[in-house]
Amino acid sequence: MASARIVLISGIASGQGKTTVTAALSRKLIRQGLRVRVFKTGPDYLDPMILHRASGAEVYALDLWMVGLEDCRRLLAKAATEVDVILIEGVMGLYDGDPSSADLARAFGVPVVVVLDAAKMAQTVGAVVLGLQQYGPVELAGVIVNRIASASHAKMVTQGIRNVPLLATLPKQAQALPERHLGLVQPDEIAQVDQVLDQMADQIEIDMAAWDAIAPVVLDESLAAATTPQLLAGKTIAIARDAAFAFVYHANLECLRAAGARLTFFSPLNDEAIPAEADAVYIPGGYPELHCATLAAAQNWQDSMRAAHAQNMPILAECGGMMVIADSLTDAQGKQWPMVGLMPGEVVMQGKLAGLGMQSLVTEDGELRGHAFHYSTLSTLVEPQAQTVKRSNGAIGEAVYKQGALTATYFHAYFSSCPAATARIFAPEEKT
After folding, report:
1. N or C end of the chain: smaller count of CB under 10 Å?
2. Contact call for residues 206 and 28 (beta carbons, < 8 A)
3. Is the pTM of this model over 0.70?
């Protein structure tokens, strides 16, 4: 059996500082010689990038529906064989969503640590903690109080917390992690990001006695092993990877490799053509709307995409990927830019969300699960081959378009939810 000290870091809502605290805590514990692994609850690309930078290790998603109970258990068990501490950052508030962060904690017997923004509170923090503890209930291992203004403020907050350990405090940060319309800014775009993370690690004050009192969680390490049919054996998949196309679950890459695929990467922003050895192409999501001029001028890349499509090479254009394979992309300032034109249609950025939430796609190989999150809309005369279904209410979700061997959709698939369906996208000629 494998064991590690595991905690789920949650709060009353988004915006309490869960990512900041998780990043600071992971870096602080690593400095103390502990091996740390971080997970993120639910679908997210940007928070994991910051947490990866803070911890130095890949950050995997944990979600009882999208990832699945057994895969979550396998990921945790594998991590427990390799590290001393596992931090799981929750999503939204502790009891928000179905399944919620609290559901995840209870499924694996993981205690909860609550992060509370005390910027406009003092002793009332204690009442909020008591409510969170009793509502579920959950096993509450402690509290981390964020945005402490002064020593006297810290004292008042401490007075309000009863029967629950105060694990750590973090003062109000002079430099917050910046955000934009899809969430946090990618770490490579933040000036001196490691200096910011180091400063947060310096400033978080941990009560190590209270931390060490948290009992380790024991997991069956035999669950860490997994086998995947070699449905992509001998295939080379070229994946776009740069600041415009960075929204890729590391678990998706592992799923492709486990199925036998060789992965190679290229950068459309650097006008790199699809590698010559590629048998299939994956253009994932990201922020292409921030790089329209560069992408519109990337002639080598565009020509290679058109040539691959003409040769009937399988292409998955996912969310941001679909935005650039349409005829044009209109940015947030209203300027229209010519794009690759593999699928007739126009993409336009808008100021409000156009799609959000967990969704699934029923295929001949099974149910492929994932999510959507986008601010643009596509206008096209192409009829969708299929539609996803929203998990929340069973309504029609995102369109899935097929043009020859091209698959284009706003839907972000979590590949290992159905490896056979994933393999069929990249190798439609193979029997799965």
Report:
1. N
2. yes
3. yes
The string over 128-143, giving b where at least 16 C-beta atoms fall within 10 Å of a residue's C-beta and e elsewhere, is bbbebbeebebbbbbb
For residue 242, give both structure tokens. 């740069």
Strand 406-409 and strand 315-318: pairing?
Answer: parallel
- Can you give the three-state secondary structure of the chain, one letter per residue? CEEEEEEEEECCCCCCCHHHHHHHHHHHHHHCCCCEEEEEECCCCHHHHHHHHHHCCCCEEECHHHHHHHHHHHHHHHHHCCCCEEEEECCCCCCCECCEHHHHHHHCCCCEEEEEECCCCCCCHHHHHHHHHHHCCCCEEEEEEEEECCHHHHHHHHHHCCCCCEEEEEECCCCCCCEECCEECCHHHCCCHHHHHHHHHHHCEECHHHHHCCCCEEECHHHHCCCCCCCCCCCEEEEECCCCCCECCHHHHHHHHHCCCEEEEECHHHCCCCCCCCCEEEECECCHHHCHHHHHHCHHHHHHHHHHHHCCCCEEEECHHHHHHEEEEECCCCCEEECCCCEEEEEEECCCCCEEEEEEEEECCEEEEEEEEECEEEECCCCCCEEEEECCCCCEEEEEEEECCEEEECCEECHHHCHHHHHHHHCCCCCC
Closest CA to 211 of 58, 61, 87: 87
Using omega within 30 degrees of 0 as the cis cutoff, is the peptide bond preceding 137 cis?
A: yes
Span 184-208, pLDDT tens digits: 566 666 657 788 899 999 999 999 9
Beta bridge partners of 170: 146
* Residues with a known catalytic role: 319
Length of the chain: 432
Q: Which tokens go with 117?
A: 């923004």
Query: Residue holding tokens 């969708």?
Result: 384
Q: The tokens 């290229």 sit on which residue?
A: 266
pLDDT digits (tens, 9 = 90+) for 241-290: 999 999 999 999 999 999 999 999 999 999 999 999 999 999 999 999 99
Return the bridge partners of 266, or none.
240
